[in-house]
Amino acid sequence: MSLLHDPVAFLTSLHRQGDIVRVHIGAWPVYFVTTPELVWQVLVTDAGDFELGRILERQRVVFRNGIVTADGDLHRRQRLLMQPAFHRSRIEHYITTMNEHANAMAGAWRPGQCLALDEHLHELMLTIITSTMFSADPAAAAVAEVRRSLPLIAKGVMMRSALPPVFDRLPIPLNRRFTAASKRLRAIIIEIIDNHGGDGHDLLSLLRTARDDQGRPMSREQLCDELIGIMLGGTEATANIVAWAFHELAQAPHCADRLGDEIDTVLGGRQPGGKDLTRLPYTANIINETLRLHSPLLNMRRATQPVRIAGVTLPTGTEVAFSPYVLHRDPRLHDQPDRFVPERWDTEDPALSHTMFLPFAAGPHKCIGESFARAEIAITIATIASRWRLHAAPGNQVREVLASVPRPNALPMVVQQRRTDLLPR
């Protein structure tokens, strides 16, 4: 068993060896922490003793100085500059756009149709993120280039995170496609920035007008770095979570029934708004349970000074790793950990506290777009579930494929109408 050939089985086995386990990945020693207390120590309590580790370091070829891979003073500056654009008060403005596009997608489906749900959701999330970033629509050619390049870059980033650095220099088709797509995407984003004439409320407008404590704006290159990070973070991961949610609901009809009843009661056939999201507790349970079951597989930090963890003193430069995916399925913490049970979120289970549930990480590097992502996921689920019941396509076996958030290999689903009054006329 190895991390490369069967990463889930390998990572799941580590807690049986102890709270902190030294593993050699090639000639590269990594210490895996396997308890929520130690993960919290690394991410939050002793966060000042760590910097981003090798996985994110390998991704700088794409994100450069963006907040995704920035550290230290640069990260603090960029987080302060970007935070207002992702504040909860801004989410209501974005929800209008989310509603519009989710409703257009669901409204185009037909009863009995078998559709590739994962593909529809990836297209939806890309449409939402480009629309919220650029209220003045970029040229069609620019949007087409983003759609063309982004999947290639996402795949390349994942491969470079998992493989040794020597892989980057191999003259293989994957590397050539990745390099070409990265150059194309960066060029088109710069072009969009230069020609932007937004309404003052889109993400790009907010980032362009942001100033640090010395009154300095972001440079054009820094804006480009941040927009690429937002695009990648706001498409694949959120699309995968919504896809998994409907896959899980198809296997648990009673959960789908309860979700539909809640949406009918609260929304009564209208589109969800920002205030409605707090009135859909079972929908929130479904989102949390999906995030628990389908979390990021691996994350890392690097010690910037000697640090003591679980009685072990780790020298400067030590790589420390942990798996949110495995932590959230740990049988020591969760009853029936591999089962989809949204009702578990109705209880005061300590294993579901903020220190043990980390789908968006925690501490200084917690995902800045969590509120945006949760709203996007909730709006999409509520919009689809208000109209349709989705069933697994006969004969299809769904399995997880390695990605930042493991994705379904394919998710064909059959559409069944729920609300005839919401069907297209």
TrEMBL record:
Keyword Iron: yes
Keyword Oxidoreductase: yes
Keywords, in A-Z order: Heme, Iron, Metal-binding, Monooxygenase, Oxidoreductase
Cleavable signal peptide: none
Domain of life of the native organism: Bacteria
Family: Belongs to the cytochrome P450 family.
Protein name from the UniProt record: Cytochrome P450
Annotated source species: Streptomyces formicae
